Amino acid sequence: MKLLSIVLTGLMLIFSVNALAQANSNGATSIHEISEDAAPTASLELKKDPTGGFNVHVVTTNFTWRPEMASMKYVPGEGHAHVFLDGRKIMRIYNEWFHLNTYQFATKAGEQLLSIEFVGNDHAPYTIQGSPIGDQKIVDVPADEIQPAKSQTPKVLAGSAALLILALIALLFRRQKAK
Questions:
Q1: How do residues 115-143 score in pLDDT, each as one tens digit?
Q2: Torsion over CA of 85, 86, 90 and 91, rounded to 10 degrees?
Q3: Are 11 and 74 within one domain?
Q4: Are 109 and 134 in contact (CB under 8 A)?
Q5: I need a surface site. Which of 22, 92, 134, 159 has the fewest CB within 10 A?
Q6: Is residue 25 part of a domain?
Q7: Among 99, 75, 95, 64, which residue's Cα sits nearest to residue 85?
Q8: Is the pTM higher than 0.70?
């Protein structure tokens, strides 16, 4: 019976690791609170790309893009930006232009909030009175430019296989006890 408990615990741990791996953290352990007069500014300019998605220009002041310093020591006024679509962080950007690939990042059609947040080299957000500094715009994502729904088949198959293995283990234990 102890072996069965160990096997069951191991399987539960294996399947729970999947949920932990999906957790998202931007790595920041602090914020950079700055005054309004020293704060960077951002303005998003969007243009629909004929091949899909949007070309985005981040017009900035008081900010130096420093891609080579990402994940390094904080230097005031330097950094990069984190991009969010519909409240979910989707990427980092290291200069004033990027392409929002809606097929890659959008999970639903319709109006969604695109936002950027300035962060220091250390990924901690720049803030004024606790509010992140950046900009946001509504984008209208066409239905033919979204990710296809992910199939649940692999998870169902993995779960079925785990149950089958457990059933076989239980049968083996019963046979051994009967002898």
A1: 999 999 999 999 999 999 999 999 999 99
A2: 40
A3: no
A4: no
A5: 22
A6: no
A7: 99
A8: no
